[in-house]
Amino acid sequence: MLDEEGVDAGPSSDPVIWVDGQLYADPKDARVPATDHGLVVGDGVFEALKVTPAGPFAVRRHLDRLERSAAAMGLPAPDRAAVREGIDAVLADRRFANGKVRITYTGGDGPLGSQAAYGRPMLVVAAAAMTLPPVSTDVVTAPWRRNEHGALTGVKSTSYGENVRGLAYAHAHDCGETVFRNTAGNVCEGTGTNVFCVFGDEVVTPPLSAGPLAGITRDLLLEWFPVTERDLTLEEALGADEVFLTSSLRDVQLVERWDGHAFTGLGAVTTRAAAVFAERSAGDLDP
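Predicted structure:
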């Protein structure tokens, strides 16, 4: 089973679910109302963070982004103490070394339409085991474009239908990820990843003005490794020596082929970037 970032969700053991302060022994008992605005119109935001043997990674940064996404959606700021309580609860008796935590925060009870929700926001925290992703993958270019000027640009909202379609498109082409261009024709992002291209010793990633989500792993790599932010055409990207993806669940992942094009580079720069990220993240669980 694959999660929203296209990563194998691991063994089919049931996830542990916490909803608004209550932990459920059986996830089938966890319920949200049929009128929850996150369910009805996708009026919600979420975060997905990795769990290592040492614990959940970069919680503070994920909560910062959750707050930014909530504000962009017009939702009240989530209670950070409550989110941390939920994370602690779902991981208290974990039986896996590597996994993920999913935090979902919705508008709560609302109308059967796009008018504003009128209920108290709902907070759901879930945890499950996750199989470590492969070190490399293939990607394909989406036939659809990201709108870098849209209301949800840069927002990690639960309105994820476009990414569901994108990931299905990748799987239909025997790839692990789909990359979107924006309306200007430049490389934007994957369904759940940021894109990096290597030209010699220079590493380039699209700027946030191109429309990608400000990924947590992207931000950390920009702090820990020399990276240039600038627009990239698809033709430029396909001419790179190496390409790699980053995400909270993939870390740094080499791209072997893009639209069937095999890159000639041996992945030396990608390997260095992955090593730096692994070392720095292992040394600080909440950088």
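Summary: Residues 268-283 form the longest helix (16 residues).
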